[in-house]
Amino acid sequence: MAKPAFRCIECNEEASELHRDYSNGILKITICDSCKKPVDKYIEYDPVIILIDAILCKIQAFRHILFNTEINIHWKLCVFCLLCEAYWRWSKLQGSEQTSDPADIIRYTREWDFYGMFGLAALELAVFVCGVLVCLGLVQKLRGRTLDTRLLLKALLLSSYGKVLLIPAVIWEHDYSPLCLSLIKIFVLTSNTQAVRVILNCGRCLSLLAVMTGLSLETCVTLTFHKLQWHTQDFLQFQ
Ligand SMILES: [Zn+2]
């Protein structure tokens, strides 16, 4: 079985171990041969500190999570984030359809709308991820390098954790909700950009280009869906 390759969180150099366990019970953090700093200082830190640093988009925290831990919750997190997004869209849809007619209460039971919103959110995420992967795949091919698609996919899904903030945005809905939603979107995209930077060890320009490509394609899907929705509503009104 291949030995796990760790990475120095400061300079991205590969390391064979994060700490050395001496026989008398003393653990010593490994020092990086390249930058002479601890390979991964976060192994001593409390998870809350690591989470705060990840929220602050610190590249060291991203390297620790993606290279030096075995966190394997990206698919579960992805489904949870999609549920949060679907719930937000569904609640917005229900809110826009409110009328004074008591018979319209039945609309609140239209759970199919929720599944539709979930499907749309999943489609948008798939298009966004594919856009980023294709963009980076082409760039890496031009550079004569290979792209670790599996790791990049994991990084993109994990770094989209900010979508769970949609739930408090729905619960404490107020006049500033559109601003909150824009800030959540910017936070998720910033986090995605940092994740791409960490996986490819590239500059901000390339990671930003990849994320913007994904976002453009995602926006196209959203706009196409809304156009189809309007056309369907117009068609039904004329019936
Ligand atoms: Zn180093």
Automatic annotation (TrEMBL):
TM regions (residue ranges): 114-139, 151-172
Pfam families: Arv1
Biological processes, Gene Ontology terms: intracellular sterol transport; regulation of plasma membrane sterol distribution; sterol metabolic process
Protein keywords: Endoplasmic reticulum, Lipid metabolism, Lipid transport, Membrane, Transmembrane, Transmembrane helix, Transport
UniProt GO cellular component terms: endoplasmic reticulum membrane
Key word Zinc-finger present: no
Protein family according to the UniProt entry: Belongs to the ARV1 family.
PANTHER family registered for this protein in UniProt: ARV1 (PTHR14467), PROTEIN ARV1 (PTHR14467:SF0)
Domain of life: Eukaryota
Name of the featured protein: Protein ARV
Major subcellular site: endoplasmic reticulum
Annotated membrane topology: Multi-pass membrane protein
Role: Mediator of sterol homeostasis involved in sterol uptake, trafficking and distribution into membranes.
Subcellular compartments: Endoplasmic reticulum membrane
